[in-house]
Amino acid sequence: MRLFITLVAAVLCILCINVFADPVFPSHIAGTFGDSSREPKYKIEFHTEDSPYHPDDGQESVVMPNKDGNNFLCFLPKVGKAKKSVTHQNTSSMIVETEKRVKLKTPDELLEVLKNQCFIRQEGWWSYEFCYQKQLRQLHLEEDKVVQEFVLGVYDEEATAAFNQNLSDISTLKDPRSKDASQRYHAHQYTNGTACDLTNHPRETEVRFVCSEPRAMISSITELSTCKYALTIQCPMLCKHPLFQEERPVWHTINCNILPKDYKDTKVDDPHFTMIIDSDDPSTYSTK
Q1: Which of 107, 133, 251, 275 could form a disulfide with 155 if both were Cys (CB 3.0 to 4.6 A apart)?
Q2: Where in the cell is it found (predicted)?
Q3: Three-state secondary structure along the chain?
């Protein structure tokens, strides 16, 4: 019963967070639910009348409306107990044994596909532009023109090498400030940014690359101390590395069909919740 309530909450969170201006749904829309990288996460998929989802016998369902009052029948996944994760030490041992037979790519080798790419994230007044192994800028834009700019750091190969000198090619770090302390990341150092008015020192940033689907993007930026920042980049290519794979969550799918006209029980579980969906890449939105 507790699991059923949790899954219903997942449906409510996913359907209420995603906001779509267009009432016509695409065949696949996803959201996430789950606070820890070790906890299961849920995504939702909508199916058309021509190609409906066929549930298993006894699979539980819940009826939910969208913003126009159209009802959907959503089938909840059967979720078993999660297997215990492999410890960092045991994983490292397995990787060392594997390296004797096959040379694994290092995190930096996996990240090479990001060369010549830039990513932008907007947070209120400021936008942040990160160009891999080049620089990180904090910008204020008006009519797509830069009217204010601070460089938060320029890629520093020597500082990055010094930072990682005690780490092997397969080692990663754990973020002590993360809500999930087990989140591993690979770090680059960006130094010699615009001088800080408060410290009279150049701004600097630690760029942290983490394993995350479905696409590379800036997930967050934090000011750790005055004019010293941490930028987190989600990178699906890092998931190819065994130590990062350990952090990948278990995903479960909630499948939703358009409610059949002959459906007997048209009662909606909670009329206060409705589906509102947004057309801007909903697969990247999180319910957290």
Answers
A1: 133
A2: Endoplasmic reticulum
A3: CHHHHHHHHHHHHHHHHCCCCCCCCCCCCCCCCCCCCCCCEEEEEEECCCCCCCCCCCCCEEEEEECCCCEEEEECCCCCCCCCCCCHHHHHHHHHHHHHHCCCCCHHHHHHHHCCCEEEEEECCEEEEEECCCEEEEEEEECCEEEEEEEEEEECHHHHHHHCCCCCCCCCEECCCCCCCCCEEEEEEEECCCECCCCCCECEEEEEEEECCCCCEEEEEEEEECCEEEEEEEEHHHHHCHHHHCCCCCEEEEEEEECCCCCCCCCCCCCCCCECCCCCCHHHCCCC
Structure tokens at 85: 């994760």
What span, in angstroms and rounded, lies between the C-alpha atoms of 278 and 280? 6
**CATH of 105-245 given 2.70.130.10, 2.30.110.10, 3.30.499.10, 3.40.50.300:** 2.70.130.10
Region(s) of the chain under CATH 2.70.130.10: 105-245
pLDDT at 16 over 60: no
pTM: 0.55
Nearest Cα to Cα of residue 24 among 284, 275, 248: 275
pLDDT of the residue at 35: 46
